[in-house]
Amino acid sequence: MDLILCALLLSLALAFSHLVSANFYNDFDITWGNDQAKILDNSQRLQLTLDQSSGSGFQSKNEYLFGKIDMQIKLVPGNSAGTVTAYYLSSQGDKHDEIDFEFLGNLNSTFGSTQQQTSTLTPCSGIPNKLCFLWMELHLWNADNWATRGGAVKIDWSKSPFVASYGNFKAETCSASSDCSVNSWYGAEALESSEQQKLEWVRENYMIYNYCSDSKRFPQGLPAECTR
Prior knowledge:
It is found in: Secreted, Cell wall; Secreted, Extracellular space, Apoplast. It comes from Cryptomeria japonica (Japanese cedar). Its EC number is 2.4.1.207. The active site is at 98 (nucleophile), 102 (proton donor). Catalyzes xyloglucan endohydrolysis (XEH) and/or endotransglycosylation (XET). Cleaves and religates xyloglucan polymers, an essential constituent of the primary cell wall, and thereby participates in cell wall construction of growing tissues. The structure is a single chain. This protein is mostly beta strands. The chain has one domain (5-227): Jelly Rolls (Sandwich). It is built from three helices and eleven strands, in the order ββαβββββββββαα. The chain has helices at 24-27, 183-186, 193-206; strands at 5-11, 18-21, 28-32, 37-40, 45-50, 56-74, 83-90, 98-104, 115-119, 134-142, 162-175. Strands 1, 2, 3, 4, 5, 6, 7, 8, 9, 10 and 11 form an eleven-stranded antiparallel β-sheet that branches. The longest helix is centred in the C-terminal third of the chain and has 14 residues, at 193-206.
């Protein structure tokens, strides 16, 4: 059985206020899936399950303005075609913004073949100088209408239940409930040339899927951020 442990570092800015180690009971609420979502190992591990009845998901109790968040994810092993394991930040409302990591399942889930989708964050749906507070979302769901080879490969329910887990959550953040300054966030410098080159190297060598080039998924036109 292939077990994948992916450490995702999500940096929203260069400034932060405090470090919070994981306690999923204190930091997250179940949003859907009921018994399909569980907190285990003395609140240090969060587990999501998908079967034919339902997927599952959690949402952070806090909203975040800026900071750095670490999370380790153990993806669905083996034949995970049609499933999506997600880790993202999202604002509220119809015109919400996201910073989004979605791991799309494959017939044989290995790190090299696991696809990653990254969405860009637009500043509060185009409203300049407005502060965006984002919720953290952790989901596992059925997306076999598009997730694997454009929907050509469907979920093999004989392999269910599908299980993904999250752990080692650490946050250096300014949340909506925190007393912290955003001055250094506004003054954060852009990436240096060497840092930009490293980012481009990762994009060229590890980005398998780019929704901004997926005209089949968006037949009415690509999302607005793709042309910015």
